[in-house]
Structure formats: C-alpha cells, structure tokens
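Show me a record, fold above all:
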Amino acid sequence: MNKGPVSQFIQHHYRHFNAAALMDAAKGYETHLMEGGKMMITLAGAMSTAELGLSLAEMIRQDKVQIISCTGANLEEDIMNLVAHSHYKRVPNYRDLSPPDE
C-alpha cells in the first residue's frame, strides 16, 4: 500500500504512549485489510460538523470499510445536509447570539 501524507506524518511523529498505540492500531487495520478482512465502523453522536461522510465515502470506494452502523442522529444530519447543504451559511460566533438574533 502506498503511504499518503497523513500516514507518513503519523508514522514519523506518533512514536510514544497513546500516539504509538494509534500507530499500532493503524498497522493492525492495514494488515487486517491486506489479509482480506472486512471492517465495520460504528458511530454515535453528531458527526456531520466534521463532514465525516467525505472521509467515509472515500474509504468505502477504496473497499476499506464494508459496514457502517450509526445512530439516528447521524442519519438525520445527513438527510438535512442533503436537503439544505447548498443553502447553508456559517454563522461565526453563533454561541453568542441572543434568542431574538437567532
């Protein structure tokens, strides 16, 4: 497998403690896939803010993920994103809005 820039960064910098555990997990995931294993991802809570679907879609296209199990919150946000995505506008400092402003 060719190593992309993120993999190269992790391999070079993630050498100790919890970071090293992440590196070990990534190596295990890679080995699992190379041996023909399948991967299931489970998600809970809101993930749309990070546009997680962009990463997951690419992982599905590359046959790195075969099953996704998620909570209803993720499905609801995906549907809302499909419906309103082109109309969405980011509101800086939205936490500071008063009820009338909102």
Q: What stands out?
A: The longest strand covers residues 40-43.
